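Page header: ASSEMBLY MODEL / two components / 805 residues total.
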Amino acid sequence: MKKTVILCSALLLVLWGAAIASAESQTELVIAQTAEVNSLDPARHNSITDVNYTIQVFDMLYILDEQSKPVPRLALSHRIVNPTTWEFKLRPGVKFHDGTTMTARDVKFSIDRMTDPQTKALFASFWGPIKEVKAVDNLTVQIVTKSPDPILLKRLSLDLAIMPADLFQKEGAEKFFQHPVGTGPFKFVSWTRNDRMVLDANEAYWDGPPKMKRLVIRPIPEAATRLAELQTGNADIAPAIPPFLVEQLKAAPNATVQSVPGGRVMFLYLNTLAKGPLQDKRVRQALNYAINRKAIIDNVLKGSGIEVADCLTPYHFGYDPSLKPYPYDPAQAKKLLAEAGYGKGLKLVFNSPNGRFILDKEISEAIAGMFREVGIQTEMKVHEWGSYVQMMNAWKLEDIGYIGWGNTLSDADGTFTPLFTPTPFSYYNNPALTEKIAKARTTMDEKARLGLYREIQKELIGEAAVGFLYEQVDHYGISRSLKGFHARGDEWLIVYKASR
Amino acid sequence: MGAYIVRRLGQSLIVILGVICITFAISRVVGNPVVLLLPAEATEEQRVALMKDLGLDKPMYVQLGIYISKVARLDFGRSFRSGEPAMKLLLDRVPASLYLCFAGTLLSVCIALPLGIISAIKRGTIFDRVGMTIALLGQSIPGFWAGIMMILLFAVKLRWLPPSGYGPPQYVILPAVTLAFFFAAATARMTRSNILDVLDMEYVRYARLKGVPERIVILRHVLRNTFIGILNIVALQAGLLLGGAVITEFIFSWPGIGRLSLDAIYNRDYPVVQATVILAAAFFVVLNLLVDIVHIATDPRIRKQ
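Prediction written out in full:
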């Protein structure tokens, strides 16, 4: 009798535990992220992983939609008072998680803090054009820029979290960020570095309370483990699934895959600053004609790529769909090399990182093989990512370097200024082009800006400023029971409208 | 004994100082963290300001002097990435690492000791051959492969255990087994070797000649006299386990010191790298000291010396 009671109690306990777990998991959403956030303080943020924490706990004035168009969030509307002054009307009645109401003073405080040189925010360069913020009244803010800035709204959408001024000033930064308070769809509960961040639904969220009552973000750097968590039902969203695991993901009964063009463009740096064959346009064009982009995408990337004409994608303002990629034409490549005086062959150094981008080393080796077909011998040098960045940043790149560019602001300027004007990351220097890029950066008229970027791109393609490759396609593993989540090309994980 | 401990601690401080200087120099040679911290769009002014803020604009010998004087005051600097105190970041991870290290060592010892003892006692038999083959397999199989295979089998296929994470015992089993694979194998082989040495000793042969039952020969004479050697091996393995768990922590998303220091190395987060090395060096020093104390306490020959 005693044994029966004990056995039944044990069974009940197990069932009860399973029921609780099941109930919890119905309203809990788990993201298996690729890395840990740097810090809960946006001033220490420098990657998309960091941004994906900010957007849960905080709101920005604007956010970008899936076509990279700014959408009002804490701002309701804006008007351009003059080319360097923007006025924003704020959304009334928005509450911070501590119950206080968001006003223009909080907006001014938050933007001032992040643009203050004393704060040393790592993303500060993105907000560099902001000169001054004025709180005109409780719900009106004016932002003055140093020069006309057509992409101010996009700057305001990038990690410029609006924080409660009073609470922040009372507690100080260190205490505030132990338990950050924002207006976002989720409230901060706890964070154990490299284990998990736990956030609870903000039932008073101005855009409607999230249907999922708890959000857990777990940094799981190993892709196979992320996939395993999805397959076992322990995770609902797993970003950055590599192409070679996609078939396995598709075969999983409780998971599905969302594939989106990633907005990250891969290309080959060609060092035109150092004396050598790459200073000859014909050699650079030959390299572009020698690359069979379709073969790389189909065979190495298993279809996870889209050929691009230059370094922009449809996500980026300035993209021109009429521009076409270099065709694969090894005969033309040989012809150009002969015209340039390299008919007998050429030797170049080919640098690649290892594991930083999807199949970077493998793709570099494939491209090196294609170069060999047209008479260009390469000496392959593979680098650890940290060393690779040091080398590129100091203009020490020898000849060719495989690289990817994410373009955080989804605007042509975010690619062209760092890559094609004299910056530490640029290996192409053309004063006339530099001037055109600077003009486009401060042209407020959208049509005129697009015209300038069309000219710039035509020149970059004609001059073969870099070796153009492809746009990366990103794969997200999603639990089949999850509804209302859409993977985005900018890798933002907007989950507050998701449900089961 | 007290004087011995004080002398050993003094020697240890010199070792740790040497470790600090070497790590300091090596980490600064392999690269500048500023280019990894700032986005590509950062201005030159930002880069220069950050270099200055992190103290990296000074000559290396000045930086080293400042660092040592701060360490003497138990200030190990702040992480370049998160801004948090470097040693606090590490110490927060110590419980997770110790938990995994303890579980891995326990599993490793539970597998290795019986395997090594039986292989030694039954030298040349099928037990010995099977035992050493298992040990060879354990040492040959790469940890990252073993870990991922176990996730696929026990988590995905059988659903017996969670694939990753930190928490109650079911979370530590797979990472501990992954760690134990390699270390149990090495420990088993060294245990076997130790015991074989003792089995050949005259006093063991004499005990057998006297007609002492084999069970007593093994328990009282052989194992008792190999205890210190085996303890040395286990202590060394435990130390290696703490440092060698990097890959295991990465695969199983275990929030230990290994994963933190790996990230710090990739990101050239010097203060965290240096704090890790100091902590690891201190750990080894203390561990070795404890083993020596046990050695003195249990070996009458050394006590007499």
